[in-house]
């Protein structure tokens, strides 16, 4: 396995790749997920790119690409909420060829490290209950399934106490 590194997303050079990763993540998570993303992200996915640019400005270490050697094999999108000690994980993604090789654990280790550095105590994410692979991954890493999100019952809210990883 090549060396792993995490670098902030460079939207100028990787915008199309970010869109592809987000579309694939949505397709993996939901029936019709890619189309759902396309509809929600506007013409040429500009709303998504604007949203991602805002996240990069607010929390650059929270929006990164994972490099294996010289290849981008993963993407993380996370944000700090208005509450100082709470963060939200928007996306944890690996390209299909990188799955099943332990790289997901390294993605997760990175998010925990960053959360601890910035003082996050609790983290949350949303996951489709039909995405069994993601559910198993998050449960293995001690995320607790809080059940359907009130505002979007198609998704489950998961919660992690970051201090459990200290």
From TrEMBL:
<dbReference type="InterPro" id="IPR000182">
    <property type="entry name" value="GNAT_dom"/>
</dbReference>
<dbReference type="InterPro" id="IPR016181">
    <property type="entry name" value="Acyl_CoA_acyltransferase"/>
</dbReference>
<feature type="domain" description="N-acetyltransferase">
    <location>
        <begin position="19"/>
        <end position="163"/>
    </location>
</feature>
<dbReference type="GO" id="GO:0016747">
    <property type="term" value="F:acyltransferase activity, transferring groups other than amino-acyl groups"/>
</dbReference>
<protein>
    <recommendedName>
        <fullName>N-acetyltransferase domain-containing protein</fullName>
    </recommendedName>
</protein>
<dbReference type="Pfam" id="PF00583">
    <property type="entry name" value="Acetyltransf_1"/>
</dbReference>
């Amino acid at each position: 396995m090549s060396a792993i590194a995490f670098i902030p997303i460079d939207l100028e050079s990787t915008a199309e790749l970010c869109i592809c990763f987000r579309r694939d993540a949505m397709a993996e998570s939901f029936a019709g997920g890619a189309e759902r993303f396309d509809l929600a992200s506007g013409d040429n996915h500009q709303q998504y790119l604007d949203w991602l640019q805002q996240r990069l400005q607010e929390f650059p270490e929270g929006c990164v690409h994972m490099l294996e050697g010289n290849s981008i094999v993963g993407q993380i999108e996370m944000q700090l909420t208005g509450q100082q000690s709470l963060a939200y994980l928007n996306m944890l993604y690996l390209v299909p060829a990188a799955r099943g090789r332990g790289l997901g654990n390294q993605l997760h280790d990175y998010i925990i490290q960053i959360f601890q550095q910035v003082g996050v105590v609790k983290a949350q994410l949303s996951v489709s209950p039909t995405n069994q692979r993601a559910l198993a991954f998050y449960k293995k890493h001690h995320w607790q399934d809080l059940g359907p999100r009130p505002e979007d019952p198609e998704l489950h809210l998961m919660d992690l106490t970051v201090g459990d990883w200290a």
